[in-house]
Amino acid sequence: MPSCKIAPSLLSADFARLGDEVRAVIAAGADLIHFDVMDNHYVPNLTIGPLVCEAIRPQATVPIDVHLMVKPVDRIVPDFAKAGAAIISFHPESSDHVDRTIGLIHDCGCKAGLVFNPATPLGWLDYTIDKLDLVLIMSVNPGFGGQSFIPQALDKLRAARTRIDAAQQRIGRPILLEVDGGVKVDNIAAIAKAGADTFVAGSAIFGTPDYAATIAKMRAELAKAG
Question: Catalytic residue numbers?
Answer without folding.
Answer: 36, 180
